[in-house]
Amino acid sequence: MGYEVDFLAVGEREKSGDAIALRFGNLYGKRSEQMVVVIDGGYQESGKALVSHIKYYYDTDVVDLVVSTHPDRDHASGLSVVLNELKVGTLWMHQPWKHSYAMSHLFKDGRVTDNSIRSSIKDALNAVYELEQIAQRKRIKVVEPFCGLTDDSEHLVVLSPTLDFYKKLLPDFRCTPEPRKDTIGNFSSFVRTVEESWNRETLREDGETSAENDSSVILLLNHDNRNLLFTADAGISALTEAVNHLEYNNFDFSMLNFIQIPHHGSRRNVSPSILNRLLGHPKSGRLASFMNHKDAFVSASIHGAPKHPSKKVINAFHRRGYEVHTTQGINKLHRHNAPDRRGWTSSIPEAFHINIEE
Predict the structure, then answer these.
(1) Nearest-5° angle of CA 200, CA 201, CA 203?
(2) Among 13, 81, 69, which Cα is nearest to 43's?
(3) What pLDDT is attached to residue 168?
(4) How many domains is the chain built from?
(5) In sequence order, which residues have a C-beta less than 8 Å from that of residue 187 and are 6 or more positions away?
């Protein structure tokens, strides 16, 4: 039994995105012995690349499960191509317009009504609303992915968000009439650099991200005694929800083998304290990441740096025993007990950085 996880290169210039295909099961056996999943689809071109990739490398036009993690176009737009061109069993996606009634008292503009909020959300989140329309037309089952939901194989489980956490985030979505706070950070075009060492970490505790990002579906794949964590654009609050759930269920964090670094490696989505809980405290030796055989992957565009990925985030994962691999224009594969692929070579991990952005 094994798995393949493909991170397709997404984005142009500084714009990043996520388009992930994976399959697990008996990869040397029949299609019926495998589960094929798509997690986000990037932009339209990324969706086309996903369709071609799955047909060629997975030798199928059937996807058991598609997951739309949150309503950002760099994650959701390409999924319309996947739904239209492949045979999809189930679509996991949040439907915020279904949770908008009795919300008007949360907004400052007294003229706002529940119906206007519902319409505003649909207009602003057109990429995911379109997915629902395609699914209905093609009779694809749609399920909202809240904490505890598992796929048919029972190997893939949702860790966050809970329904309550999601409802608390919804009033601060950027599309709502007047969000209560602005959690969208700017990154200056002028970047100062500072020095880090193995024992000097400058990653801060006060990172914030948008409500949409914190609504991201966080997934754990447990297969063949290995654990893989997919985080989409989740921020510190969402990751805390996921870690709390894992701790409540007595999860052994030392058995985490693979993690997707959130939000293309943004410094606003992780902190030392949440990484300590999730990955363990920093290791004492510089070779820790190469000795532990643990991997972290980042979906980032070619020209995304220094924001995507942040060097201080790369360093933070290194300190905690993870090799860091970035797409940056190149498709990347993480696999276990899977067939060889002709022409594919081993990915070279990111180095530990001394000069980093402040």
Answers:
(1) 160
(2) 81
(3) 93
(4) 1
(5) 306, 307
- The answer to whether 51 and 36 have CB atoms below 8 angstroms apart is no
d(CA 279, CA 281): 7
Burial of 139 (C-beta count, 10 Å sphere; 0-12/13-18/19+):
exposed
Return the H-helix or E-strand segment holding 6: strand 2-7
Q: Which two tokens stand for residue 23?
A: 């399959």
pLDDT of residue 18: 83
CB neighbourhood size of 73 (10 A) = 16
Work out whether the CA dihedral 166, 6, 266, 349 comes out positive or negative: positive
Torsional class of 337: left (φ above 0), alpha (ψ -120 to 50), beta (otherwise): left
Listed residue (82, 72, 96, 76) closest to 161, CA to CA? 96
Inter-residue contact 36 to 155 (CB < 8 Å): no
- Residue 350 is given by DSSP the state P
**pTM of the shown model:** 0.92
Query: Can you list the residues of the chain whose pLDDT is less than 50?
Result: 182-185, 187
Distance (Å, rounded) from C-alpha 168 to C-alpha 236?
Answer: 15
pLDDT value at position 32? 95
Q: Which run of H or of E encompasses 256?
A: strand 256-260
For residue 128, give the H/E element and its range.
helix 126-138
Average pLDDT score over the chain: 88
* Identity of the residue numbered 356: I
- Reference 129, options 119, 138, 139; nearest CA is 119
Q: How far apart are the first and last CA of the chain?
A: 44
Residue 230 lies in domain = 2-357
pLDDT for 195: 87
Per-residue confidence (pLDDT) for residue 262, from 0 to 100: 96
Q: Return the CATH number at 75.
A: 3.60.15.10
52-102: pLDDT as tens digits: 999 999 999 999 999 999 988 888 889 999 999 999 999 999 998 888 765
Angle between helix 126-138 and helix 114-124 axes, rounded to 10 deg: 90
